[in-house]
Amino acid sequence: MTAAHRSPLIELTGVTKYFRSGAQVLSDVSLAVQPGEFVSLIGPSGCGKSTILRLTAGLDTPSSGTVRSPALDTSAQGTTSFVFQEATLMPWTSVFNNVWLPLRLQGLNRDESHARVTQALKSVGLEDFAQAYPAQLSGGMKMRASIARALITAPKILLMDEPFAALDDLSRYRLNDDLLRWQQDIAISTLFVTHNIAEAVFLSKRVLVMGARPGRIVHELTIDVPYPRSPTFRESSDFLNSCRSLSAALKQAAEAGPVSV
Fold first, then answer.
1. Which of 207, 204, 213 has its CA nearest to residue 246?
2. How far is it, in rounded angstroms, from Cα 135 to Cα 105?
3. What is d(CA 38, CA 207) in angstroms, rounded to the nearest whole number?
4. Do 241 and 193 contact (CB within 8 A), yes or no?
5. What's the CA gap between 38 and 46, in Å, rounded?
6. In a 3-state reduction of DSSP, which class is residue 107?
7. pTM above 0.70, yes or no
8. Terminal CA-CA length for the chain
9. What is the rounded (10 degree) CA torsion for 40, 45, 49, 54?
10. pLDDT tens digits, 99-132
11. What is the pLDDT of residues 21-77, one digit of tens each?
12. Secondary structure letter of residue 215 according to DSSP
């Protein structure tokens, strides 16, 4: 079955969301993410990007409209992983135990999990830091540990909320390169929130631009460059042209301002 004929793994249809205060955060949002696809959300602060991730993860419910996602299936344990802007590691225990946590919650003991945790740490370059504590790690290493923990259950969906925002550019570039490798290795569907235009272009198959609150999709940019993408992609005309197009779309969205409700 071709990608064009596969059912989306994530699908939001006509989703509107109000906060308890009565403020509207999303207005008639519709989007879909295909199996194995990398999609980024970009837009002004407060436009509801993180709210879309929470709805997809089953951590919140829409005021109207529908959300389809494996996270909403209570029998599909471990199919969705969430990586936040902060690494959210448990500071009182080792990197190994932090990465083991999702398997432990599924009922697997340390011995049963050892090989998988060791492989996960190796895949993110932290095999020599299994017994280190989070306080002993750099910011980039903490995020690597957080991603290893997210991938340990081999999820179908990876939700990422500005995971590299606090990192220096070199660490961000390295993690962008590695994230694409991990994502392609296991064909995971990724919905990624960022404010960084270059990051969105480098990582994504599609970038969805959101307008100011109440958030809605105002533009879609497809990046027609096949994976794997090497670091030299950042120097290509395709990359620069996509960055310009996305920057113009963001500027237009910002100048349009919020929708009156």
1. 207
2. 24
3. 9
4. no
5. 22
6. coil
7. yes
8. 42
9. 130
10. 999 999 989 999 999 999 999 999 899 999 999 9
11. 989 999 999 999 999 999 999 998 889 999 999 999 999 999 999 999 998 887 666
12. B
Confidence band, pLDDT 50/70/90 cuts, at residue 255: confident
| Rounded Cα distance, 119 and 49, in Å | 32
CB-CB contact of 33 with 206 (8 Å): no
Residue written as token pair 């929470």? 54
Q: Catalogue all structural domains in the chain, each as residue range(s) with its CATH number.
A: 3-79+156-256 (3.40.50.300), 89-154 (no CATH)
Closest CA to 217 of 172, 185, 256, 177: 256
C-beta of residue 238 within 8 angstroms of C-beta of residue 225: yes
Closest CA to 44 of 239, 214, 221: 214
What letter represents residue 98's amino acid?
Answer: N
Residue spans of alpha helices (H) in 38-109: 49-56, 95-105
Strand partners, 42: 209
Give the pLDDT of residue 7.
86
Host H or E run for residue 147:
helix 139-151
Residues facing residue 67 across a β-bridge: 12
Q: What is the pLDDT of residue 261?
A: 46
pLDDT of residue 2: 43
Q: What is the mean pLDDT of residues 192-217?
A: 95
